[in-house]
């Protein structure tokens, strides 16, 4: 009899839905940003960049003085001269339209063109200088999502960068004949770190670790911008990134309305990871691909938080994704959290500008993607 009960119990457990690893998160409360308050940059090249500079001149100058230059002077003058040398190597790989745009922004603000280039290559430069930033991402496929749409969460963890928290600017880049892009943008950046286009393609950059890096290549943020302006699917975006002349070691989370993948890439190699059978995919600042690992960075304390829904079958909500990003933050470095819900067509972001703490637990803002990107 005991054997029969044991067998029945095992069968019942196997048939029952697995419980979530945590109780459902509280609903998201966010302040709606009217589409009229978004910065929309239209036009091409120099004119677009000049409009960008004029619109955000005070913010760009402040961030240059309080964020960019201190990073370049961590070792007085050495890092700045290093950065200048590296962007001179990168510049030939930039399409002329983006060089013109950076020049237009720089001249409108009154900064050197070369400083404008550094602004748009700073994550690559810091990695080349062995002072990388950190980040994480988490994606739930539509079949696992409470809203029925793909969910995408993103943390930006930059050390000594609290000054950026109040200055994130939702910006729409709208070049003629190209996909419109919504970027949660740093003023002065032509390139993008976290952005989504009107076709639903989204990309986020996460530093990884490899000795296969170089400065003779396309700076990653501006490359992201070009890809999002041209790609209509995650697959197209991945192929464009794989074929590009890349600079540094990164993990790139790429998704569209239905699919997602992580590109684990160095300057010369790229491997793909796809969602699990449970409809989940996540990434941080190390490679999971064995052939890319070099022992300098492995799974850290954030990984169990990103894996919190592994082994479960319940629906995942946008609030659950936001809570996951809150748990997976790097303490003292988490300056931005973003969640996109394709089911509700909402983008939620926060930076905790008031408390300088966990971005996902501070004040949150909501953008209607259908209004910001007509046709989304």
Task: State the main characteristics.
12 helices, alpha+beta, eight-stranded mixed beta sheet, seven-stranded mixed beta sheet, 376 residues, globular
Name the beta content range: 15-25%
Residue windows where pLDDT falls under 50 for at least 5 positions: 1-22
So what's the overall shape? Answer: globular
What is the terminal-to-terminal distance?
Answer: 60 Å
Helix content: 25-40%
Write the layout of secondary structure elements.
Elements: H1 2-15, E1 31-32, E2 39-42, H2 45-55, H3 57-72, H4 78-90, H5 96-109, H6 113-119, H7 122-128, E3 134-140, E4 151-157, E5 169-174, E6 181-185, E7 194-197, E8 202-207, H8 220-230, H9 234-243, E9 250-255, E10 260-265, E11 270-273, E12 280-283, H10 303-306, H11 318-327, E13 334-341, E14 346-350, E15 364-368, H12 369-372
Parallel strand pairs: 1-15, 2-5
Antiparallel strand pairs: 3-4, 3-12, 4-13, 5-6, 6-7, 7-8, 8-9, 9-10, 10-11, 13-14, 14-15
Give an overview of the whole structure.
The protein is an alpha+beta fold and 376 residues long. Helices cover 32% and strands 21% of the residues. It has helices spanning 2-15, 45-55, 57-72, 78-90, 96-109, 113-119, 122-128, 220-230, 234-243, 303-306, 318-327, 369-372; strands at residues 31-32, 39-42, 134-140, 151-157, 169-174, 181-185, 194-197, 202-207, 250-255, 260-265, 270-273, 280-283, 334-341, 346-350, 364-368. The protein starts with a helix and ends with a helix.
Summarize the structure.
The protein is of the alpha+beta class.
């Amino acid at each position: 009899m005991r054997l029969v009960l044991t067998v029945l119990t095992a069968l019942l457990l196997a048939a029952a839905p697995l419980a979530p690893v945590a109780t459902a998160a509280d609903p998201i409360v966010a302040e709606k940003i009217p589409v009229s308050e978004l910065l929309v940059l239209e036009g091409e090249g120099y004119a677009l960049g000049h409009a960008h500079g004029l619109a955000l001149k005070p913010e760009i100058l402040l961030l240059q003085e309080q964020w960019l230059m201190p990073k370049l002077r961590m070792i007085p003058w050495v890092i700045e001269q290093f950065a200048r040398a590296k962007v001179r190597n990168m510049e030939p790989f930039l399409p002329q339209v983006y060089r013109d745009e950076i020049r237009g922004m720089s001249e409108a603000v009154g900064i050197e063109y070369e400083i404008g280039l550094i602004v748009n290559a700073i994550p690559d430069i810091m990695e080349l200088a062995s002072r990388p930033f950190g980040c994480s991402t988490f994606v739930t496929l539509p079949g696992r999502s409470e809203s029925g749409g793909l969910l995408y969460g993103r943390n930006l963890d930059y050390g000594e960068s609290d000054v950026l928290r109040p200055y994130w600017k939702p910006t729409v880049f709208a070049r003629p004949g190209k996909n419109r892009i919504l970027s949660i943008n740093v003023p002065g950046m032509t390139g993008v770190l976290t952005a989504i286009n009107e076709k639903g393609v989204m990309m986020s950059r996460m530093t990884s670790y490899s000795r296969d890096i170089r400065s003779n290549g396309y700076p990653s943020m501006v490359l992201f911008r070009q890809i999002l302006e041209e790609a209509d699917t995650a697959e197209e975006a991945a192929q464009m990134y794989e074929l590009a002349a890349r600079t540094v070691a990164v993990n790139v989370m790429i998704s569209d309305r239905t699919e997602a993948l992580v590109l684990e890439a160095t300057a010369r190699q790229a491997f793909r990871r796809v969602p699990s059978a449970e409809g989940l995919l996540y990434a941080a600042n190390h490679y999971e691909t064995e052939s890319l690992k070099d022992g300098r960075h492995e799974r850290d304390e954030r990984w169990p938080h990103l894996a919190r829904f592994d082994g479960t079958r319940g629906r995942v909500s946008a609030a659950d994704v936001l809570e996951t990003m809150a748990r997976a933050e790097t303490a003292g470095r988490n300056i931005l959290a973003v969640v996109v819900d394709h089911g509700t067509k909402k983008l939620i972001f926060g930076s905790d500008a008031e408390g300088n703490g966990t971005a996902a637990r501070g004040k949150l803002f909501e953008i209607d993607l259908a209004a910001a990107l007509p046709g989304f």
